[in-house]
């Protein structure tokens, strides 16, 4: 297959002024009639080439005249009409089979209802159309269906509905905003609806409706509340007002993505919409709030202004992630939010950037765009916007945003056009900054310092370099904002944060008037997505760990100390004195009255095993890292046993459940204590943990008690897991948690148990949530066991990829990444991983999705 290249972009030579769609819904034979009002805008002899896949073409007419067989051509991916008038109506009628569609793109069925997912290229499996984001059209949609599907929904406003012959009925929808085909949506089914309204800043009333499975309405209230807060926040923070009279969200169980921002009709994976205290954890509440906001924010950054081509995906995704992260920071506290965002960035994006699938935030070629919905496009894309704001300042940043919204409203545009708005409003030359979009790889920054006591001068030496990534052997220096402050050895603040812009390979900065030998607090707030190395001594890090006024760096100092101790032990050189000292300092931090529980919970969680793998210098040995990390956990659990038990008791709440950040922070700290105590499972701790689990009255506490018992293993684990299953067998979202917790079991026999779970009657590989709960969670979050020296973990994953690729290529492709990292591991492990990739690569009938990622992983 031929890759698609950014350099080959050409505008579509026709405008589709209006699009009229008529759906006659039926599970295995749905008819779709499309009437496209077309006007030639390009070359006089350009043929009309429409995308279309898996469609049964029934008829095609131009201005009512049926085309004869020699007037058009159909292949597996296109409908071509070589000669057309300059202005005409093209009408096609096709038949499709939603019931058989397990790829979950286009029109498919989930739980007896019809729904759609068109981003990026699903619309072409619904009808023939120029399925590309730069073709904007005004849609009107008629849906006809059986009465057993009472709700018939599409984008825009409902303009008519009624009954038809027999038991059938219809609905007519008109969307006044021109949109690209990837934002089209349709839902038909039996649903409960929760209704509310929102008055916008200009005083317009918007009806809000959330549609869920019958009986689930009470679980939609948190999403509804989040939506209203997001609408308000976007008005205040970005001056963005909602534009239709109606905003709808529908939850579906079978969904490849998290959620989708279709104009006026968002469709959500039910795991990111439904929540109540009994079935959802605080982490679920937090993600629901963030994703509801994310999809809503797309209405401006994505829908009103969309992407010219899919290479510009970060234009909408990076910016929208930045917007949802800023919203969450305002809702839940900036420091805790930043730590969580950085943790996710490192775990997913830094790993991607260090492996064979590294790509720029704006890539320049792809085989399947589905493969580019990555942490790099989303999370690094957001970091770029964040740096832009840091470099320009909040006010100039907002001016640039305002100009962008004003100038490009209604357009499909590019990253260049976006950056040009900031250049213009700030007067700053951002041409070097653009390299952040074009260059892959995580920059390495080193910072060393010399202090001249006599002259009271501190000299900072900064350097940067970025290792080669596939297709990019040499790298340019990037403009990197490095926020630095100084503390005294006693932990007093000596100098406030200053942002140094490192925009060359190396530079030196002199700070005068530094009266005492300082401790450097660098990259405060994680001011750039880089790996920082400094010449700080452990004693400096302890100063930061106890006293840095930048709480992000306080947390970071603890992580770095822990990381170095774990890596030393994994390399066979344990520093027992250092481990004791760390445990002691951690104890001090945990009794700090001024710190919030949510922050303390983060202090208590050690760097994850995937992070440690990425940070180890030598080819990684996951089992050694796991054991070294465990050794530190055991030491902390013993050294701080009394304190952890005390906090565990103090953080228990007896009152009513509140999803607030404050209440969630107390639960997080209590659960972090439980987790740590499970490293030292003597009778007293075991009794405490069993008590925690059995007394839990909400899902956060229940999972917080269950996982430690799973880690301890034996009878406690079996009893707890089977009680959990018996309670929740009928709740799919909770059962996902039951699968996922078992896949993260660190005990050596876990692979057999995971394989056995694939034969459990509740394991449905056609459901992406269930598949990921078991298979991805095992491969990504249980490295010590996934990397079993026998290679059985790799074989298991490869078998799953091949099975799932037969019906859902998009989801199958997302399972490839854990194998792709083979170069990072000890050579015997790496060879076995490679062997499985090779086995997949030669498999006949591989999807383009999996083929692209496997091929890239092998080269
Ligand atoms: N555009 C969606 C989102 O990220 C993904 N399908 O919100
Ligand atoms: Zn998005």
From TrEMBL:
SUPFAM superfamilies: Leukotriene A4 hydrolase N-terminal domain, Metalloproteases ('zincins'), catalytic domain. It catalyses: Release of an N-terminal amino acid, Xaa-|-Yaa- from a peptide, amide or arylamide. Xaa is preferably Ala, but may be most amino acids including Pro (slow action). When a terminal hydrophobic residue is followed by a prolyl residue, the two may be released as an intact Xaa-Pro dipeptide. Keywords: Aminopeptidase, Hydrolase, Metal-binding, Metalloprotease, Protease, Zinc. Residues 540-858 form the Peptidase M1 alanyl aminopeptidase C-terminal domain. InterPro entries: Aminopeptidase_N-like_N, Aminopeptidase_N-like_N_sf, PepN_Ig-like_sf, Peptidase_M1, Peptidase_M1_dom, Peptidase_M1_pepN, Peptidase_M1_pepN_C, Peptidase_M1_pepN_C_sf. Its EC number is 3.4.11.2. One of its GO terms (molecular function) is aminopeptidase activity. Residues 441-534 form the Peptidase M1 alanyl aminopeptidase Ig-like fold domain. Its cofactor is Zn(2+). It comes from the Bacteria. Residues 222-435 form the Peptidase M1 membrane alanine aminopeptidase domain. Residues 44-183 form the Aminopeptidase N-like N-terminal domain. Belongs to the peptidase M1 family. This is Aminopeptidase N.
